[in-house]
Design a protein that fits this description.
Elements lengths: L1 H7 L3 H24 L7 H84 L5 H31 L8 E3 L1 H11 L1 H6 L3 E6 L7 E3 L1 H18 L5 E8 L5 E8 L21 H7 L5 H11 L3 E8 L2 E9 L24 E5 L3 H13 L3 E5 L2 H10 L4 E4 L8 H11 L8 E5 L4 H10 L3 E4 L4 H32 L1
Parallel strand pairs: 2-4, 8-9, 8-10, 10-11, 11-12
Antiparallel strand pairs: 1-3, 4-5, 5-7, 6-7
Helix pairs in contact: 1-2, 2-3, 3-4, 3-10, 4-9, 7-9, 11-12
């Protein structure tokens, strides 16, 4: 019945099976009847049996071939459906990633833009005469602004780490200066508890090393922030740096006198959004990104981070990262840069759509002895670059009418007097993928908001020194040409 149903439904192998089986069944019946002497033996019965067998084999072969074809078609259909599902899933994931990137870029822009204004005003206010009460308020605001900037940057760095977009940018820096900066950033937090925060630098550590100092700073910030958070009042946090023997590897230990990490939780501390027991989040705050982010950043530097030891009396985390010698760097040494050595006062074009940020940048440039002009979008920047030469262009990236990336491409094509002028992105978008876009568009450097005045001064000095060197070489070439003639 089942076979008959399959045959009626158009299932070809069943039809071949039935058609092949019937003659063979008839041959068997005829042979049996003949053998029982019910009918007279005849030659055609004996001939019919092998013919029926051959017919059966042929039809069974067709049935098998048909079945194989059906299975193959079903497999191809299933594969096509799987490919279609995978393609839909891939497109959905890409759409989700685009939405996420757009959201993070928007959040980054909306948070970093006002933070840049606040930081700029703080830098200008730092040189103003303040009484003790005003000075205390100034430092309180500055530390809050720094912490907010770190939190925003940490979230974006974590996203880049998840997508494996973290890339290090080695440069020369001083480890002691890094320790001084971190000590200043945590001064208010340690005083408020209060706890002791001490830094130690072994004599084996070179005064200057070649590695991504900014990324190392982020690693240590997260570790110290975590240690300060978990250390009770009256406790201490100790940061010690040394060099591994016979190796260009920096070893940094961050120790605290907090509650320690239970053995059952040691594997979880490097997992995102985990903070040991659930009650720890309520007790100490945070979302559990600090140690996972620090570990990812250390890996991006080519190093690693481990829990060296832990007990009820505290924890010691170890970070080891390789570094290069200073002579590996082709960058200018910031210590030898001085605007006073520049042949002429640099002229800088500030391209920024936010009026407050544009004003702050120009005031900061004025403070460090630089002449500047400001425009508010990419179209105006192109026109300004066509009209006259500039020593540097500071370019915001997210602007109306035309963004900074498109404007940079146009300047590199159309502005004859500024084809080689350094263009520096100063943007609220802190993602690694966006940095790559800026550099591919023809920009020379990339900075994220908020930009501190000391960083701005170093940036201007760096490129002013380069322009100064180029001018001296041009003048020397002209003099040599005149002398030869």
């Amino acid at each position: 019945y089942e076979k008959s149903g399959l045959a009626k439904s158009g299932y070809h192998p069943a039809r071949y099976f039935i058609v092949g089986w019937v003659p063979y069944l008839v041959a068997v019946i005829l042979t049996g009847v003949e053998y029982a002497s019910i009918i007279e033996p005849t030659n055609w019965v004996s001939y019919f049996v092998p013919v029926a067998l051959a017919w059966e084999m042929a039809l069974f072969s067709l049935a098998l071939a048909s079945r194989i074809k059906i299975l193959r078609d079903e497999r191809d259909t299933l594969q096509a459906q799987q490919i279609e599902v995978s393609e839909k899933a891939r497109k959905a994931l890409e759409r989700s990633n685009r939405i996420k990137d757009d959201f993070l870029n928007a959040v980054s822009h909306e948070l970093r833009t006002p933070l840049h204004t606040i930081q700029g005003q703080l830098d200008l206010l730092r040189e103003a005469p303040l009484n003790r009460e005003q000075n205390d308020a100034f430092h309180l605001i500055e530390h809050a602004n720094l912490r907010m900037t770190r939190q925003v940057g940490g979230i974006l760095d974590f996203v880049d780490a998840q997508e494996e977009n973290l890339l290090s940018s080695p440069q020369v820096f001083e480890p002691q200066s890094l320790f001084d900066l971190l000590e200043y950033e945590f001064r208010e937090a340690t005083r408020a508890k209060p706890i002791s925060l001490a830094f130690g630098m072994d004599d084996s550590v070179p005064g200057k090393i070649f590695m991504d100092g900014l990324m190392l700073e982020k690693v240590l910030y997260q570790l110290i922030d975590n240690a300060v958070k978990f250390t009770p009042a009256g406790g201490e946090v100790l940061v010690r740096a040394s060099r591994l023997a016979d190796d260009s590897v920096l070893r940094i230990l961050v120790s605290d006198t907090g509650p320690g990490i239970p053995d059952s939780q040691r594997e979880k501390v490097f997992q995102a959004f985990k903070q040991g027991e659930a009650g720890l989040t309520r007790r100490y705050g945070g979302v559990g990104l600090g140690l996972p982010l620090a570990s990812s950043l250390a890996n991006a530097l080519g190093g690693q981070m481990i829990v060296l030891e832990t007990s009820d009396h505290g924890t010691t985390l170890e970070v080891t990262v390789p570094y290069g010698d200073v002579h590996q760097s082709e960058h200018y040494d910031p210590d030898h840069l001085n605007l006073g050595d520049v042949v002429q006062v640099p002229r800088v074009l500030v391209v920024e759509d936010d009026a407050g940020n544009r004003m702050i940048l120009r005031k900061q440039l004025e403070k460090i002895g630089v002449i500047s002009e400001g425009v508010q979008n990419g179209l105006e920047a192109i026109q300004a670059a066509i009209n006259e030469p500039w020593d540097m262009i500071i370019m915001d990236c997210q602007m109306p009418l035309m963004d900074g990336i498109a404007a940079t491409r146009e300047i590199r094509l159309k502005a004859a007097s500024n084809l080689d002028t350094p263009i520096i992105a100063v943007t609220a978008n802190a993602s690694e993928s966006f940095r790559i876009k800026c550099l591919e568009a023809g920009m020379d450097d990339y900075c994220t908001k908020p930009l501190r005045m000391d960083a701005l001064k170093q940036l201007v000095s760096l490129y002013a020194e380069k322009r100064n060197t180029e001018r001296l070489q041009e003048q020397r070439g002209v003099r040599d040409a005149v002398a030869d003639s």
